[in-house]
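Example S7 (structure tokens).
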């Protein structure tokens, strides 16, 4: 039989009390605030990255259309391949 050690609320309270004694309440507040700020920045960066990808996709599609390449129903990889073929044909 496997025994899985779970931490209950009593253990968490004890750990929190020990941390407060070790670091002090003010420092613990600062650490919690820093952790919250880090999580918020991570979420914002993840959101910005997906926005940047959408912007890049639109730029690629516009460039392909200027080259006379149809972009309907094609993904970005297909569009890029066609753009590459077209530029090789011109050279």
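Recovered sequence:
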């Amino acid at each position: 039989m496997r025994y899985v050690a779970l931490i209950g609320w009593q253990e968490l309270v004890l750990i929190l009390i020990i941390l407060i004694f070790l670091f002090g309440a003010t420092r613990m507040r600062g650490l919690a605030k820093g952790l919250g700020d880090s999580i918020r920045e991570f979420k914002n960066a993840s959101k910005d990255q997906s926005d940047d990808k959408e912007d890049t996709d639109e730029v690629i599609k516009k460039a392909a259309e200027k080259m006379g390449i149809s972009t309907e129903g094609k993904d970005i990889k297909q569009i890029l391949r066609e753009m590459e073929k077209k530029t090789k044909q011109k050279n």
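Notes on this example. The two ends are 71 Å apart (CA to CA).
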